[in-house]
Write a structure and sequence with these properties.
- 34% of the residues lie in helices and 22% in strands.
- It has 466 residues and is α/β, with parallel strands linked by helices.
- The strands form four sheets. A nine-stranded mixed sheet has the order 6-7-5-8-9-10-11-12-13, sandwiched between helices. It has a six-stranded mixed sheet with strand order 14-15-20-16-18-19, with helices on both faces. Strands 2-1-3-4 form a four-stranded parallel sheet, with helices on both faces.
- It is globular.
Length: 466
């Protein structure tokens, strides 16, 4: 834990008691603050009490004496409308910040300040974050990886002599972190997502741009430039130290991938670095972008390109991101539960042929119409969750599908159809292109459920069960 000593002797309140909220309350108390905390849901309240965090309904907080409200990133801050606790804070003239802001202030005031690498973007940010941490650890640093992935930032270890913090930062967290000034900031890409929480795609892109503009003086901004919004942000940062990254375009400077080969261009000299197809746990062009971003992000710390690529090839991959979770004969089962929108699902669909596709959940804006170019790869679709009927309308006359409703039913049906097919190497792919919240607490729980279902099917096959 990183105690928040910058609030010593002050009074702070935490609203939203998920993992980051409980971590914030505990870190504030450890740093000497008086802490009030609340969540409107009973289960988080119980979890907080188990962690020795005192809960008090937010309307009973001492608003006249509060120095800050620490808001969970899951609580509406601006759109579709601010939560009542935000409105009350504004009325009382109390600043509203997030746990990442507490972390940033603490590290900034610490005498042994450690570098911060912050990664954001619509897709790929989790893999890129984990990969950066893996590379740094393999190359002799003590990388602390967290934020929107893994541990909350305040649960990471305090800085040591070789610490580098590597944080995944969501748009919600950026909104609440005006003082986060990373030494290296990374933007993977921008595609439509979270519009309900930001009001428009332009607002969403502006939040992502804010992180890059907050990069520390003399720091580096690494930017994927293959989509129009990210490219516009790159252009707007003229005068800052930047590294553009592309997959498919030759760059005069920066890092790019062409035909699976990674190149670095600087000072008029282009150097071939590696064949990315040797990174077997990071397949596909979207993962090549993740590798290129990570490569550029670690260059201020690791000068040996061969050492970087050796670490990349050793990277095991992340759960729920095109994760192979089992085989039954010729049938492969792939968990891509992290694909919560169509753009993310496209990355997985591009990696396989003869796909038995499990898709659905709580739909995002745009649905799956943008994925039509991948439909020829899909042998059959298995529709689940709230999106099932709408997706059936999209798929009508474009290929076979089944309305399965639940993940259990879809997995069982897809496995049977894949095994009975004439495909040489069929893939049962969970890549839902939807949020999980209609049937699961989050995408991790959904992916874990698929892994368990696959395990049961594998065990049954080994027993020779029909």
């Amino acid at each position: 834990m990183i105690p928040v000593s910058s609030f010593q002797g002050k009074t702070a309140a935490v609203f939203g008691l998920g993992s980051s909220g409980i971590a914030a309350a505990s870190a504030l108390a450890a740093g000497g603050a008086s802490v009030y905390a609340w969540d409107d849901r009973e289960a988080p309240q119980a979890a907080a009490r188990e962690a020795d965090v005192r809960t008090t309904p937010w309307r009973d907080w001492p608003w006249d004496n509060l120095d800050a409200v620490i808001l969970s990133p899951g609580v509406p801050f601006t759109h579709p409308k601010p939560h009542d606790v935000v409105l009350k804070a504004r009325e009382a003239k109390v600043e509203v910040i997030g746990d990442i802001e507490l972390f940033a202030r603490e590290i900034d005031t610490d005498a042994g300040k450690a570098p911060i690498v912050a990664v954001t973007g619509t897709n790929g940010k989790s893999t890129t974050t984990a990969l950066i941490g893996h590379i740094l650890n393999a190359c002799g640093y003590a990388a602390e990886v967290g934020g929107n992935i893994g541990l909350p930032a305040l649960e990471l270890d305090p800085p040591g002599a070789k610490t580098i913090y590597v944080l995944e930062v969501s748009s919600y967290q950026i909104d609440l972190s005006p003082g986060l000034c990373p030494d290296v900031s990374v933007l993977s890409n921008i595609t439509p997502d979270h519009i309900d929480r930001h009001g428009s795609l332009e607002n969403y892109a502006a939040v992502k741009a804010r992180l890059l503009k907050q990069t520390a003086a003399g720091g580096l901004a690494v930017i994927g430039v293959d989509d129009v919004h990210s490219a516009a942000i790159f252009t707007s940062l003229a005068g800052m130290k930047t590294t553009p990254v592309s997959v498919g375009k030759i760059l005069g400077r920066g890092v790019f991938v062409l035909d699976g080969e990674l190149y670095e261009a600087q000072s008029g000299n282009t150097v071939r670095i590696s064949d990315l197809r040797e990174a077997v746990h990071l397949p596909g062009a979207h993962n090549w972008q993740n590798i290129a971003l990570a490569f550029a992000a670690v260059r201020p710390y690791v000068k040996n390109a061969r050492a970087v690529m050796a670490a990349v090839e050793d990277f095991p991959g992340l759960p729920h991101r095109i994760e192979e979770v089992g085989h039954i004969g010729k049938v492969r089962f792939v968990n891509d539960s992290k694909a919560t929108n169509a753009d993310a699902a496209a990355k997985a669909l591009a990696c396989f042929d003869d796909i038995f596709w499990i898709v659905g959940g709580r739909p995002k804006a745009g649905g799956i119409s943008s994925l039509e170019t991948f439909f020829p790869r899909i042998r059959k679709a298995y529709l689940i969750g709230e999106a099932a009927e709408a997706f059936a309308s999209v798929l009508k006359d474009k290929g076979p599908f089944a309305l399965c409703g639940t993940l259990d039913a879809a997995t069982t049906a897809a496995a049977a159809d894949a095994a009975a097919s004439d495909a040489a190497a069929p893939t049962v792919l969970l890549s839902p292109a939807c949020a999980s919240f209609d049937q699961f607490a989050n995408f991790e729980v959904r992916g874990d459920a698929f892994r368990v279902l696959t395990g049961k099917l594998v065990a049954a096959a080994l027993r020779g069960a029909p």
